[in-house]
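Hello forum,

I keep getting stuck at the same step: I have a sequence, I want structure tokens, and every attempt I make locally crashes halfway through. Rather than fight my setup again tonight, could one of you with a working pipeline run this one for me? It's a single chain of 167 residues.
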Amino acid sequence: MDLEARSLQPSLKATLLAKLREYKSDLNKLKREVKRLASPNSNDPGHEELLESGMAGANSASANQRERLTMSTERLNQSTDRIKESRRAALETEELGVSILEDLQQQRETLLHSHKKLYDVDDAIDKSKKILTSMSRRISRNKWIVVSIIAALILAIVIVLYFKIFH
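Reply #2:
Ran it on my machine without issues. Output:
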């Protein structure tokens, strides 16, 4: 009971500890009185009567204490059950947290892999762009060469026809 009273809120703690001290002192007084009355060298004529009344008071005090002890034990059992339930909930929460962390790790690896692939694709696009640019330049140059050759051939045909027709 002392331990339970100490674990309560400070407002209740002081009053309960004071009552507990009072009950302990009453119990000690009753025990001393019972020992004194039950001693074999007592020659008091009302010895038996006092002994019986003292035992009755001790029995009622003992029954009261038993009742409080039973209530305290019940509260302790309820607290133990709540602690077990809290511990079970904490373990379930921890398992859920571990599962979530594993999922997050897998998602992180997927994102990193996708990021690497994206950079690889970006490099490939840059290379393709360079190749297409060089091909475009070659195509433009080849067009000018073909146009130049066609113009030279047309000029040559015109010159040949001119000399054949007028000479």
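Helices lie at 2-6, 10-38, 47-166. If your local run keeps crashing, start a new thread with the error log.
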